[in-house]
Write a structure and sequence with these properties.
Number of domains: 2
CATH superfamily of the largest domain: DD-peptidase/beta-lactamase superfamily
Largest sheet: 6 strands, antiparallel
CATH class of the largest domain: Alpha Beta
Strand order of the largest sheet: 2-1-9-8-7-6
Helix content: 25-40%
Order of helices and strands: HEEEHHHHHHHEHHEHHEHEEEH
Radius of gyration: 19 Å
Number of strands: 9
Structural class: alpha+beta
């Protein structure tokens, strides 16, 4: 497709940059399974790596769950305490695995665990991680499971703990071995606080995010999410960094699996996750994935009911329509100048509607 067809898309992004909504952005549009438009904006390059924030929930955590559910290492109807007996007396211990993926398990949305005295007193990120997980498990439930929905970081903090015990490795190492390495995704990794990750990050073009607490410098190659940063840069809800092309490669594997072709992910289980409907019947979420039709502010007006994907707090998003073999990846660093105000609910519909018009010309 010619760049002229996407001129309205370019203007949409360029106006946002001029309005200082974000200084770095990258867009990749794929149709019929192939990239048809890939452009960097502002100070970004095509290979610029972004803090993917909650896209981690899908690209890493849900991807790992696909593997374990397929191998029957985890049953979706089981509770957390079935696999983590130490949580038997904790409020979260009775949460079902599928409800955690649907965000309807009764857990609160978020808590500033990184500020808790018990976390601050830990001498290492490993100690802080253990204490944050314990705090998440023992936080009182906010509502009756399956009768409502609350998008929750806490649930994915606990899914990360579950995955670590079943995988026999931390999520960042599993992602590197099972996804990044087979696909050749050098530079798509967790911002973990160990030498190998930090050495790799130092070589990359990275979009900075917000100013670091009590500092004049912007976070660069350090995860923006406060709880994840306290946990050493790795969690089930945030911590992954990557470029638009990295995400394209992973979604292409989702598409191959969905179509029953050889892929990194299992055909039957992926379809089960994507087609599932949250039992609370309000949120419209799939297992681990959000749905584009849940709200126009996240995706515009032209995605089908089958489209799934996710948003990230720092600005990234992707939406994938498996039946159309189409996906849109947009990455930006909208928190560069601060967390509020958040322009993305206005920007995302305009962007995605402009892309839809370009694809139908």
């Amino acid at each position: 497709m010619t760049t002229q067809r996407f001129s309205a898309v370019d203007r949409c992004v360029e106006r946002a940059i001029a309005a200082k909504w974000f200084p770095h952005a990258c867009l990749l549009v794929a149709d019929r399974g192939q990239p048809v438009y890939h452009r960097a904006y502002g100070a970004a390059r095509l290979d610029t790596v972004f803090d993917l924030a909650s896209l981690t929930k899908v690209l890493a955590t849900t991807s790992a769950m696909l593997d374990l559910v397929e191998r029957e290492e985890i049953k979706l109807g089981a509770s957390l305490s079935d696999y983590l007996p130490a949580l038997a007396s904790a409020p979260a211990g009775r949460c079902r695995i599928d409800d955690l993926l649907f965000h309807c398990a009764g857990l609160a949305a978020w808590q500033p665990f990184y500020q808790q005295r018990t976390v601050l007193a830990a001498r290492s990120w490993r100690g802080r991680r253990a204490r944050i997980r314990k705090l998440a498990a023992h936080t009182p439930l906010a509502y009756r499971a399956r009768h409502s929905s609350e998008y929750s970081d806490l649930g994915f903090i606990l899914l990360d703990q579950l995955l670590e015990t079943r995988l026999g490795a931390s999520l960042d190492l599993w992602f590197a071995e099972r996804i990044a390495r087979p696909l050749g995704l050098e530079g798509c990794l967790f911002a973990a606080q160990h030498r190998r990750a930090q050495s790799t990050l130092a070589k990359l073009s990275i979009a900075p995010t917000e100013r670091a607490p009590r500092s004049r410098r912007h976070l660069l190659g350090e995860v923006h999410d406060d709880n994840t940063r306290a946990m050493g840069g790795v969690s089930g809800h945030a911590g992954l960094f990557g470029s638009a092309y990295h995400i394209h490669q992973i979604i292409a594997q989702y598409q191959r699996a969905y179509d029953g072709q050889p892929a990194l992910f299992p055909h039957r289980t992926l379809r089960r996750f994507v087609r599932a409907q949250s039992p609370d019947r309000q949120s419209l979420r799939a297992l681990g994935f959000d749905r584009a039709v849940r709200a126009k502010t996240i995706s515009g007006s032209h995605f089908s009911r089958q489209a799934v994907g996710h948003l990230g707090f720092t600005g990234p998003s992707f939406w994938w329509e498996p039946e159309r073999h189409r996906w849109v990846i947009f990455l930006c660093n909208r928190v560069y100048r601060g967390r509020e105000p958040n322009p993305m609910p206005r920007f995302r519909p305009a962007l995605h509607d402009a892309i839809a018009r370009a694809l139908t010309r």
